[in-house]
Amino acid sequence: ILPPAPSRSTFKTVKPASVSAPDGADPGVVAWVASIAELLEPKDVVWADGSQEELQRLIDTMLDAGTIVPVPKRPGSYLARSNPDDVARMEDRTFICSEDREDAGPTNNWRDPESMRQVLGGLFDGAMRGRTMYVIPFSMGPVGGPISKLGIEITDSPYVVASMHYMTRVGTEALQAMHGTDDWVPAVHSVGAPLAEGEADVPWPCNPTRYISHFPETREIWSFGSAYGGNALLAKKCFALRIASVQARDEGWLAEHMLLLRMKHEDGRQLHLAGAFPSACGKTNLAMLQPTIPGWTVETLGDDIVWMRPGDDGRLWAINPENGFFGVAPGTSEKTNATAMAMMTHDTIFTNVALTADGDVWWEGMTKEAPEGLIDWQGRPYDPANGPAAHPNARFTVRAEQAPSIAPDWDAPQGVPIDAIIFGGRRPTQVPLVMQARDWEHGVYVGATVSSQQTAAAEGPVGEIRRDPFAMLPFCGYNMGDYFTHWIDMGHRLSRHAPKIFSVNWFRRDDEGGFLWPGFGENARVLEWIAGRVAGTAAGVDTAIGVMPAEGALNLEGLDIDDAVVQELFEIDAKAWLGELVDVEAFFGQFGRALPTGLVRQLNHVRWRLEHV
Ligand code: GTP
Ligand code: MN
Ligand code: MN
């Protein structure tokens, strides 16, 4: 069985010397680390200090082991090739182990915490034999900030430690902040591949048995078997979304799968916007948008996770708790995201991309044609018969400060006050380019009914579209019905200070399957209308499903687009919407008594309007 979660009452039992803790480390931290070391039996223990020298040592270790190879064209950059069986998040191996099954809700995999502790206790017993155990103290958000949180990840993967250096604030300062408190999240990760005396290692050790487990009551994370980012960088999806969403429920704030940006006009207008889209639906792209309309610029604040808390002024204040970007590489190009291309010219860890003959990286969509002499993501000469050169979920990892568009105050501890929240997904039909929710409760309904096509190729009827409420389906650490209630409550608390809520859809298609809307930089036009709605200067028309731009209110100046196409972007097909409501009702039904009545009211209201208008 696993040792208990750290608590200040259990410190006394441990001999701190056994884990070579840095001077001044909190005894509670040391006691917990010692209890983990006793279970995992590593050959040695290394405490991460977050320094440049440490990063270099990790890189040297990984080069020796063959985990990474240099990318000579980009200084300080490396390519990691994972085991071909360890390339993505594993939703079916992700577990929420709450005491009460109801607390996990119908959309999560639940396991009884006691029996899970037994299973994990067996797997983790001696799991780090022959390996180094790294202890990574980290802070999500600036250390000591009013919205920030602390954690410790223990891992036996140097790839994880190096990635954490880029993605979070790692090291001594975070460790010192843990002094005298047990308000930090304990997270244990092992690749699950102990080495016997004299046994040779492989470049990417992992274990086909995998568990990504969360214990919401004790705030613990235990991850076994995979070294892929979403399963192994425990600060990200496991802590900053699944555990943090539970903390947010208990403490009265929000932890969301959102981008965060500021859009500014030369004349002083500005908009702070947070947006939730499901994975691979454009958060990183929108966060780095280069507006095509004159006068506006976008500053990036975050591309994947946002923590929001009501401030003393009654407004909702938001930070990006991360320190870097872990973005999807395929499809990223000078044309679609020049900012991302510019930030990856140096000091980047690439995972599962292809390598060119002249020592650069490549992926599908970077250029039209694949260059000659490519080595694919599995290290073989590229042959289209083996599939794509880069894995479709290939990623880049860079520090946030490397983005040319990063806001100068992106790491301000208090964050920024949110004006607008947008929800979107990949919807080939039906959902208009942009629409405003009538009020907060309607906005929560819009968030709760987010849905998206799994792949752009799978064109099809409503049934093939997956509901992904708030883009949080894989990331909500508790009952999603209770999560909806928490959002509705937040609206009451914020009242007249509540951000305005919108829905967007960049992905509506014409009869030939082409996108109706040019997207990318042109999305600034939609954000400009949103800014106008917030300021009270842009006109809107109330429709059955929400408020849409009035005639001429959406700035289309200089855009080559037919009136008929614009019509189509905003067309409401009442019959199709009524059909969809049947699906929404079934989706809501699974939450039973946990579903807030406000969402039922909104559903009935939309249905009534569609039937009567
Ligand atoms: P995660 O990092 O997995 O959470 O996903 P994400 O939401 O950050 O997705 P990302 O920005 O990486 O989405 C990339 C995909 O969306 C690529 O295929 C892009 O080409 C496409 N995309 C982004 N913005 C637009 C747009 O405005 N129009 C169209 N047509 N495609 C877009
Ligand atoms: Mn994401
Ligand atoms: Mn992203």
Automatic annotation (TrEMBL):
Residues where substrate binds: R89, Y228, G229, G230, S279, N393, A394, R395
Cofactor(s) needed for function: Mn(2+)
EC number: 4.1.1.32
Residues the record marks as active site: C281
Cofactor note: Binds 1 Mn(2+) ion per subunit.
Assembly mode: Monomer.
Function: Catalyzes the conversion of oxaloacetate (OAA) to phosphoenolpyruvate (PEP), the rate-limiting step in the metabolic pathway that produces glucose from lactate and other precursors derived from the citric acid cycle.
Protein name: Phosphoenolpyruvate carboxykinase [GTP]
